[in-house]
């Protein structure tokens, strides 16, 4: 069975890594890695291949940054000849980035079955580019691997046949568990001269948060207060850095002594940093899941989440982008921890379950001829 596994943007690499290992352990599966090049900086891409011991991609489409339409179109144009040449039995895509939908669309039109890992998540907010990518990718997929029960319900409500849906757990958490011991050796706390539990971590990169100067300024108002009582480490995503520079807000950030800006961090350093934080403030999707597993309180600066289990069972709380709500949430965290548990199947073995299902699916297809 020949699979093309697609990755393109930073959060994809953690999802592809355990799948690559699970496929390599099965002689009947041949896996090719295609990197679209959606993310290309050393800190956004190569450092993850190094930290996660991922093999170099078999193909790099080198598309780079552009508008949504231009980026998606270029990925499609460059991916099509790869599929035509390789004729895989399936194209596997992960997550919800532009690379995900672009490659799914190419594959399905060439009659190659699409496998979507991390299917079914819905924020029900169609202003998010990721929500559009998720909806469309799921509609095109032949096999849908889901991380949490809400995802199964969402897909069923959209009319996806139950036989295509598999609740298998979370490949991102496979990677977290596989690298926890290694991350312990990271010296990031010493480098930043931080004691455990004496700081918070902040990440912001979503267009809804960082592309609107008024919203970003409001968030900075809240952060100005937070950093007075707890220093915050802020690894700055390139999109966010660009916007802070363009809007002149970078000068304001630099005036906050408790807000420490760094370049984007590698996987192991970031995992270590999160694991010892008093709190994480973020607008990321994956970080909501990682903090739940680490038992670290997470304040999500968004109005909704496609990952409700992190609130129902985990450490996550939605505080939106209103400065007062962010501060209230922060004070609640300082006042005491809520009980939390790790969701079922987030046990480090999701990728093996996926490989099992794929092998059975392929054998059944082969038997049918
Ligand atoms: C993308 C994903 C988002 C994911 C995020 C993780 C889509 C629609 N969005 O958003 O879901 O959470 O990745 O990071 O696919 N840039 C660099 N170097 C890079 C990559 C990007 O400097 O290696 C800069 C460019 O100026 C680019 C901007 O960041 O224009 C945004 O990059 P892009 O890939 O368009 O979207 P992200 O915001 O990273």
Brief summary:
By secondary structure, this protein is α/β, with parallel strands linked by helices.
CATH topology of the largest domain: Rossmann fold
Order of helices and strands: EHEHEHEHEHEHEHHEHHEHHEHEHEHEHH
> Distance between termini?
14 Å
Helix content: 40-55%
Structural class, by secondary structure, is: alpha/beta
Question: Which residue ranges are poorly predicted, with pLDDT under 50 across at least 5 consecutive positions?
Answer: none
| Distinct bound molecules | uridine-diphosphate-N-acetylglucosamine
- In the CATH scheme, the class of the largest domain would be Alpha Beta
Number of helical stretches of at least 4 residues: 17
Order of strands across the biggest sheet?
3-2-1-4-5-6-7
Mean pLDDT: 97
The coarse overall form would be globular
Biggest sheet features: 7 strands, parallel
- Percent of sequence in beta strands: 5-15%
Report the CATH architecture of the largest domain.
Answer: 3-Layer(aba) Sandwich
Q: CATH homologous superfamily of the largest domain? A: Glycogen Phosphorylase B
Total discrete domains: 2
Radius of gyration from the alpha-carbon trace, in angstroms: 20 Å
- What is the strand tally? 13
Commentary on this structure:
- With 369 residues, the chain is an alpha/beta fold.
- 50% of the residues lie in helices and 15% in strands.
- It is built from 17 helices and 13 strands.
- The chain has helices at 10-24, 42-51, 68-86, 98-109, 129-140, 149-157, 171-184, 188-191, 207-210, 213-229, 238-247, 249-254, 267-275, 286-294, 309-312, 323-335, 350-368, and strands at 2-7, 30-35, 59-60, 90-94, 114-119, 143-146, 165-167, 200-203, 232-235, 259-262, 279-282, 298-300, 316-318.
- The protein has a seven-stranded parallel β-sheet, sandwiched between helices.
- Helix 4 links the parallel strand 4 and strand 5.
- It is globular, with a radius of gyration of 20 Å.
């Amino acid at each position: 069975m020949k699979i093309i596994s697609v990755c393109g943007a930073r959060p994809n690499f953690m999802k592809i890594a355990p799948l690559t290992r699970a496929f390599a352990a099965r002689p009947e599966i041949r896996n090719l890695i295609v990197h679209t090049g959606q993310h290309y900086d050393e800190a956004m891409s190569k450092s993850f291949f190094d930290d996660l011991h991922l093999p170099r991609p078999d193909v790099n489409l080198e598309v780079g940054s552009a508008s949504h339409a231009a980026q998606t179109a270029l990925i499609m144009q460059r991916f099509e000849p790869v599929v035509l040449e390789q004729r895989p039995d399936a194209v596997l895509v992960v997550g919800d980035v532009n690379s995900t939908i672009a490659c799914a669309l190419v594959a399905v039109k060439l009659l190659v079955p699409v496998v979507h890992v991390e299917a079914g998540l819905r924020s029900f907010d169609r202003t998010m580019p990721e929500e559009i990518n998720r909806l469309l990718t799921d509609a095109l997929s032949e096999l849908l691997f889901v991380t949490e029960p809400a995802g199964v319900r969402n897909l069923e409500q959209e009319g996806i046949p139950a036989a295509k849906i598999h609740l298998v757990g979370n490949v991102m958490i496979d990677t977290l568990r596989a690298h926890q011991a290694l991350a312990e050796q990271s010296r990031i706390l010493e480098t930043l001269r931080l004691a455990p539990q004496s700081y918070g971590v902040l990440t912001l990169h979503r267009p809804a948060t960082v592309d609107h100067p008024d919203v970003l300024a409001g968030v900075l108002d809240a952060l100005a207060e937070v950093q007075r009582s707890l220093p915050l480490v802020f690894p700055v995503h390139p999109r966010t850095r660009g916007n802070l520079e363009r809007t002149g807000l970078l000068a304001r950030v630099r005036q906050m002594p408790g807000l420490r800006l760094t370049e984007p961090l590698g996987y192991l350093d970031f995992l270590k940093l999160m694991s010892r934080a008093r709190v994480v403030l973020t607008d990321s999707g994956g970080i909501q899941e990682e903090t739940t597993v680490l038992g670290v309180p997470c304040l999500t600066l968004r109005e909704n989440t496609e990952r409700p289990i992190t609130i129902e069972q985990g450490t996550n709380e939605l505080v939106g982008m209103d400065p007062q709500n962010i501060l209230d949430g922060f004070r609640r965290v300082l006042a005491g921890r809520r009980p939390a548990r790790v969701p079922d199947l987030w046990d480090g073995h999701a990728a093996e379950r996926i490989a099992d299902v794929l092998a059975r699916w392929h054998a059944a297809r082969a038997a049918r001829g």
